[in-house]
Amino acid sequence: MNWYQKVNDIAKKNDMPYYMVWANFSDTNFYVPYKYSDTMGQEMINEFIDYYNNEDSVFGNGTNFYGNIDKYAGVKTDNYKDVSGYMVAPFDMDTILKPTALKASVSNAGEVSFVVTDTAKGKQLTLPAAKGSDGCYTAQLTQEEMDQIGKTDVASITLVADGKELSTITNLSIGKEKDKAPAGVLENFDYYVGSNGLLDAAYGGNSAAGCSSSFTLDQEHKADGTYGAAFHYKLKTTGSEVWTGLVNATQSNTDFSAYNALKFWTKLDGKGQKVVVQIKAGGEEYEVYLTNLAKTEDAYEVIVPFSAFKGKMGGKLSGDALKDVQAFGLWCNSNPAGSAVDVESVLYFDAFKGTTISDAEAAKADADGLIAVKQTSQSGNNGGNSSSGSSTSGGNSGSTTTPDTKPSETQKTDKTFENIAKDTNATLTVEKNDKGEVTDARAQLDKTVKNASETKKTTISADVVAKLVKEAGTSDITITQTTKNASGKVMNSVSVNAKDLQAGKKLTLVKVDKKTGEKVLISSRTYKVSKDGTVTADTKDAGDYVLLNEKDAKALSSKILKSVALKDTKKTVANGKKAKVTFDKGLNMENVKKITYTSSKKPVVTVNKNGTIVAKKAGKAVVKVKVTLKNGKTKTVKMTIKVTK
Questions:
Q1: Cβ contact 88:94 at 8 Å
Q2: Whole-number Å distance between alpha carbons of 572 and 595
Q3: Residue 278 in contact with residue 329, Cβ under 8 Å?
Q4: What is the 3-state secondary structure (H, E, C) of 172-204?
């Protein structure tokens, strides 16, 4: 079926003047079918080409928009005299740790000011702005004024001109870094400082027509901490399956390879819709369905082995994928498929975190892959623990009492060490199961330095590590040392597992992309752990770093080398024409040090240093592309070029 032609025919039949489709930006961000090459493309490309050739369709190259620019450029209009403007800096969600210039572009105003507000406590101050030589208005937020507002994660700044509010930026952190969830936590809704605005900013939505969803923080329905979340959803359809969902792609924790299952608390609504928990990892989306459980209205603690998640591309949620968790989402689809649905309801969730279960526990999963234990307190205020031991296989009647299905209860302790080393404080978090066995241990070290030069190297001391290991009762501790300058700004952080800090071990420093959580190569250099177990690494650039042991460094290198591939391995080029060597989208160029191109037959084909191919005469030639990674590893890929007359 040619969908575009069908829509066109409907529009024409109903005397619609036009309908418009958007342009494409890449093969991962597109609105209409696209072509990879003359022979390959998106599955609807052939029908779309037919639509392009239809007399009713008009594409950009069939208009004279650009040809009329000069014609309309000389048309005079009345000057706009109303007050208008917008904020230039800072931005929504920014963190302000030191005195900062507030800047705005404003037109037709006499007096301009910035109103800074702590929306939680109501503290407010007004800063008059002065117009600069660049035409922008600026005011300085000083340290004294920051102290007046106080430390907050929910500050706002409103731009005011001649008494009129022009714009407001929100959810700013002033005087403190934004709080982060401890290692192993995927989402527990306690790190939004009670702000629904922050929660809303963290999640992006996607819904079918007539459907919607949103999150609000909830202090009644929760597993632990202060807040859980209420997932408000609306589904409406006459038969075709519809959906709505919310996704957070700004994960503070991205490595869940130390766990083999996901644990969370939920209280569903008994409506029986298709409730989906989604994890995006290693570029693939993995899902598990709570459809049967959604037939109940009770609160449950749920454990899902990662092996029960189904990859949309057939992958398994394990190994390297779990080291690269990129996003977390909750969805609700209409159910049953093919039936009319009109429902508006609320689902409750909390405490999504990694956990480790035995094979025997995993074997207890139901047909949906869930190990669901009914909670005694249906409001959820029991810390997520079950005292009844009543289990369910997703809403089937006749549940049986099986106390041995109760998951291990986690006991968490936090201990703070003041001045554990010079200018360094530490917080150690240890989690144990009901047998007293350590299931997770992590330490956060905060070091403050006086000189900028001290931020260029990071040393994790053997003495500090020894104290943490002794207190935790295990050497399997993830240690993260954060270095701040004298004004409190975070310059960099370095993470390493304490068990890798053994004398003589060679560690590789990699950088973590803050947006994707992907580990990126820096150089071929390794750092040798000293005889006493201390390690020092170069961190001259700001950012987050990880020290990998040899096994993990080799695995990362192999993964990156595997991504070195060409989009096309064969290409036909007419004599005298040009073509371009293009890499597959899976290759992150941040890992690449250099690329060299060579032609097997220069009289037939030449290729320059940028990968531009020029066809010289009819024949065949092979272009070899040698990619050298920043760690010195290389891979050569080939493209066969056929030159036609």
A1: no
A2: 23
A3: yes
A4: EEECCCCCCCCCCEEECCCCCCCCHHHHHHHEE
Surface-to-core class of residue 88, CB atoms within 10 Å of its CB (0-12 exposed, 13-18 middle, 19+ buried): middle
pLDDT in tens, 165-191: 999 988 889 998 877 788 899 999 988
What average pLDDT does this structure show over 623-643? 95
Q: Considering only 31-35, 308-312, 615-619, which range has the smallest mean pLDDT?
A: 31-35
- Distance, CA of 529 to CA of 504 (rounded, Å): 5
DSSP letter (8 states) at residue 73:
H
For residue 356, count CB atoms less than 10 angstroms from its CB and return exposed for 0-12, middle for 13-18, buried for 19 or more: middle
User: Cβ(180)–Cβ(191) under 8 Å?
Assistant: yes
CA separation for the pair 98, 91 (Å, rounded): 15
Mean pLDDT of 323-349: 92
Annotate 360-385 with b (16+ C-beta within 10 A) or e (fewer): ebbebbbebbbbbbbbeeeebbbbbb
Amino acid at 48: F
Model pLDDT for residues 61-116, shown as the tens digit of each residue: 666 665 665 666 666 656 567 888 999 999 888 899 999 999 999 999 999 999 99
pLDDT given for residue 400 in this prediction:
31
In DSSP terms, 130 is beta-bridged to: 138
Higher pLDDT, 26 or 161: 161
| pLDDT value of residue 391 | 37
CA distance 445 to 324: 23
Pairing status of strand 543-548 against strand 619-629 = unpaired
Q: How many residues does the chain have?
A: 645
What distance in Å separates the CA atoms of residue 407 and residue 87, rounded to the nearest whole number? Answer: 51
Amino acid, res. 135 = G
Q: What is the pLDDT of residue 76?
A: 61
Phi, psi of 550 (to 5 degrees): -60, -40
- With tokens 């020029």, the residue in question is 614
What pLDDT is recorded for position 403? 33
Burial of 214 (0-12, 13-18, 19+ CB in 10 A): middle
Residues β-bridged to residue 114? 127, 159
Bridge partners, 622 (sequence order): 640
Picking from 346, 330, 338, 347, the residue whose alpha carbon sits closest to that of residue 237 is 338
For residue 402, pLDDT beyond 50: no
What is the pLDDT of the chain when averaged over all its residues? Answer: 85
SS3 466: helix
Strands (DSSP E) found in 498-568: 506-512, 519-520, 526-528, 535-538, 543-548
Neighbours of 213 (CB within 10 A): 21
Q: Could you check whether the bond before residue 90 is cis, i.e. omega within 30 degrees of 0?
A: yes
pLDDT at 409 over 90: no
pLDDT at 382: 40
Q: What is the DSSP letter of 7?
A: H
